[in-house]
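Thread: "does anyone have the structure for this chain?"

Original post by V.I.:
We have the sequence but no experimental structure in hand. Need at least a predicted one for the grant figures.
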Amino acid sequence: MAKSGNDTPLMQQHRAIKQKYPDAVLLFRVGDFYETFGEDAIIASRVLGITLTKRNNGAAASSELAGFPHHSLETYLHKLVKAGHRVAICDQLEDPKMVKGIVKRGVTEMVTPGIATSDKLLENKSNNFLAAVHYTEQNTGIALLDISTGEFFAAEGNEEYIDKLLQSMQPAEIIFERSYLKKFKEQYGTRFYTYTMERWIFEEGFARENLVKQFNTHSLKGFGIEAMPAAIIAASAILHYLKDTEHPNLQHITQIQRIERDQFLWMDRFTIRNLELLPMQSEGHTSLLQVIDNTVSAMGARLLKRWLVFPLKNKQAIVERLEAVEFSIVQTELRQQLAAAIKACGDIERLVSKIALRKIGPREVVQLARGLEQTAIVKALLNQSPNQWLGKLSNQLDACEAMQTRINKEIQENPAVLINKGGVIAAGVNEELDQLRNIANGGKEFLVNIQEREAERTGINSLKISFNNVFGYYLEVTNSHKNKVPADWIRKQTLTNAERYITPELKEYEEKIIGAEDKILAIEQDLYNQLITDLQTYIASIQVNGNILATLDCIICFAENALQYQYQKPVIHEGLELQIKEGRHPVIERKLELDEQYVSNDIELNKTDQQIIILTGPNMSGKSALLRQTAIITLMAHMGSFVPAAAAMIPLTDKIFTRVGASDNLSGGESTFMVEMNETASIINNMSERSLILLDEIGRGTATYDGISIAWSMVEYIHNSPFAPKTLFATHYHELNELEEHLPRVKNYHITHKELNNKIIFLRKMATGGSTHSFGIQVAKMAGMPTALINRATAIMEQLEKEHVREEAGNNMVKEAVQNASVPKVQLSIFDAHTETFESIRAKLNAIDINQLTPVEALMKLNDIKALLK
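Reply from O.Q.:
Generated one for you, tokens below.
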């Protein structure tokens, strides 16, 4: 907005405030409206759909203007923030009635995507994390805070680990040092909303001091992050950012939790995506979370999501959850009573955070008290439980009886939504307040008495007493009765059909009533603010309650899932054998028609005789579903959930790797094949003996011979690895079935089918042995391809099959080259040494270092030799 010497004092004030928040949309309170000017007005008009006008400021230039009523702030604010804008809310800091001249204004709050506390800006079932990332030469630090709940996490690790955390926690906003903008974009692209900050904020000394001050401790050892400088700096940057955006009330941030990679079953971001664990934007997509989330509280839903992306790796912790689920299944009445109480609690995690932020309304305070009453019921119910783990949870619950008592005593049963509406503080709390209420209520009754008395005295039966902001209370007389008006009435206003009067008595009582109402509101606000201040001491206890209630909610959810969908308790063991009997995919089976039965399958993997399964079968036959369900059953077991299977023995697993399906990263300049190779390389370089590896169609993104070679060599590499990780390998390359003959722990399986009248019927049952046909044309026909196209494809396939017969010898040479690429055996005696061609071949073969030759290079050399023979 251009500066003008003729600016009004109001616009000069706006400019001064806007200069402090240049990158935010400034909502400038003017009377009963929030106004925006210049570029802010253009943005507001576009995003909010409000009228854009021009405001002439007295100079030749004019400024854009757009505004909305102040009571619509919540409605419009969330639209601006959801559109990715930072919003600075500038309020009037003085009562305009008490000030001469310009009213003092200032920014009272900055709202960004990562700093949201309004219910309209938050998803009940999801955390709204603000993340900070800090780079060092050794590793990267990350911190994540949900200001709406006070949950604070920190971690350190390499780029892959940080990427996994960002994918799992899905922060709404990420802050980092400005000089690393290019590096951040290279690593993570533009999929996150980001904000950069000055370098001095990321100094370790400042960071440690900042955190110690926040937690009121002498050191950070108690949080397990003392030796994590990069994480400490990231966490401090978040606190600084909050204070820098006018969020000084952070008493609910009482601790920080360390996320330790070794404590959880590892899944990289490819696996989280490939297994479709979390909801996506795509229409019609159903995630595992959506299927298993039958929690009754928002707290439970948020925790369940975290359990899903951070499955346990500690056997004792997993077994404790499983036994609690088993107990809940048997104790039907107890489970139902607990679920009802947890549901009635409401979202006390976010309610208690509003106490610290001083944004909690009277009705929310009453709900918090009700939540604590329900907490007492939960505690009493759990005290009857013989399950030790549930008993430990019960011991940590604190119903905060003193807080309940005070709220119930001081706040009316059904108070107003906002404190400034009045009618919040209960009777008997403050003597002066009670007296003023009697005056206000009695005064209104007295006005009625005046009306009745004066009507009787004057004979004006239609006489009425009314009120407006200009004249206050007045007597209104229609023109037909104005000749009856007594001399002691004072005329104040003439209307078309009536006259308005006041009397000294009426004015006296008006002053008493209005004065009383103003005083009542002031006293109520003071008492309410004092209550909120005193409730601060209970924040930590209620946060613990929230976490325990969320945990119970998840356990009850698992029990209900097991009962409703026939899930069974898995056996978690420290061996290496995986056995799943009649396993099912939990998402697919829920999407089936009511009369359709899911075809279950058995899976067994071990280190002795069946380490790797090569799975072949027609397109759309269910190979990918079988791979995914194996991973999901393993994952659900590590969450402490029962699983969709008749029985399952699940070994403690440290990592689940998947390479399922193909997807281009064209914006990053990577093809399908490059993405596939990157993901596969990550698997090969990070696998261990306790890993579960699921590979689907490896090598499909390149030429057939290249693909076969890569797939073949991958199976060999995994088989011969000292870790010997359990692996499921689905493929269309039927040539890989030959690996069973060469590698003792490789076994072939296929998905069965039937052919009927030139149609294919998928039986979706796994059986031993490999498949030799993909039935691609039949699948294309099922998909609705035109008949002419199908017929042409059939003719082409028949022709190719004839050519394939003629080239069968050549293909056998390819297979032999792949199998023996590393074996130094070359029979030169088959060549005629007297011909020039064979001399060239001899020279090429002599130049090859076979010990260094890869399968792909072997094929290329073979192709060169074939070219020489033409």
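V.I.: this helps a lot. The longest strand covers residues 746-756.
O.Q.: and The domain at 571-774 is CATH 3.40.50.300 (Rossmann fold).
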